[in-house]
Amino acid sequence: MAVITLNPERSRGTISKNIYGHFSEHLGRCIYQGVYVGENSAIPQVRGIRTDVVEALKKIHLPVLRWPGGCFADEYHWRDGIGPKESRKRMVNTNWGGVVEDNSFGTHEFLDLCEQVGCEPYFSANVGSGTVREMAEWIEYTNSDGDSSVVRERRANGREDAWGVKYWGIGNESWGCGGNMRAEYYADVYRRYQTFCRTYGKNKPFRIASGSSGLDYHWTEVLMREAAPMMDGISVHYYTVCGDTWEKKGSATDFTEEEYYKTLHKAAYIDEVISQHDAIMTRYDPEKRVGLIVDEWGTWFDVEPGTNPGFLYQQNTMRDALVAAVSLNIFNRHCDRVTMANIAQLVNVLQSVILTEGEKMVLTPTWHVFDLYQAHQDAKEIDCFVGTGSIGPEKWAVERISASASSREGRYTVTAANLDADQPEEIRITGVRASRAEARVLSGEMHAKNDFEQEMLTTKPLPVTVEENGDLTLTLPACAVAEIRFS
Ligand code: AHR
Description:
Bound molecules: alpha-L-arabinofuranose
Low-confidence stretches: none
Strand content: 25-35%
């Protein structure tokens, strides 16, 4: 039996709802076909934006969406994507598959998507091949209501009032596809660009510095040392890759039990990565004012056979659901430093919550994890100690049970995952005297997936017993993720 002990007296603070954020790039079929099908499509849409996708994102209360990249962001010139569609500039998407980008989905369309979903936009500005002026005018275009030429241009394009875009990334992966800069050089570039992130009225930009590749602690050290007072957040990217090289990342659907544990072991390592970055940041920012923004995370496997290698299309199984559950529990437990996270990517790319094929749409197991974890959004994190053994081959051993907990207005939520691929686990939750409880679970064989023919994985009620002493007991099936709510 695993015992989850809650201590409501101890909390790291509020779990920002933005931890449940997503990332959408002009990559493969994420934006085009996944989100945007155009105003003339027979697929149900509003101003070209798929209604089925919007509804699915509303159900999980998507709080914040990052766009337009990724690597694409540092080659994106926002003026190419405004004004009459027939005269928008065409470009070749050199990062992703060499396809033609007609810019029919630009600033207005993305902000329309965010308004339809009810989420905050997070823009990633072009530093690698753009200019300070270009970024500054993008902020003015979206956030100002002054009578400037830029604002007149927006109004001529059909938008009277400023949208008020809060989150601004200053470049993406500036150590790599965003310009191959050294930390020391980028720190100065960052200082310069952030100077021109002007506040218009109440619209004060939240400035996010382009962060480390995950294990590059030097990058965070230099950025914090040189620019901490000038930033609100610094990002970090961490992908879970099962294979040992980028050439062979492993199949999304065809894997052994050892590879299952290896993937979960690597996913759980993000705890160490966050702790290390947090320790560095705390030396320069002991108040924890600067957020660590995990704005790209998730699994990265080989593309599905026969698909464009530049489109990064992969299926999604219960293994992905477990990766999401473990990662989100870790983010919750680091909520005093991690204030936003954006899984890569929204639709049809990497660890998506949604897959589409023509007019068909399917919710992946990962979508169901975001559904199960919703109650944590903006709730108070509470300390949760998990007494459990480990499972898996010695080299890839993982904690059998992963959990996190929060409370809001006297109601508690524990999310718990059983990483054991084969055996169910008895769970006791103690530390809070419960009088009533309910639970939901997503479970299945580790390779189980939803596809366009059959959506077999969905959440189901899970029996939970309130014991005489107010403890809760339940049985978590093998390879499962659950939400337990009680008061
Ligand atoms: O998400 C795919 C790519 O991964 C992004 O474009 C880039 O930022 C990262 O390397």
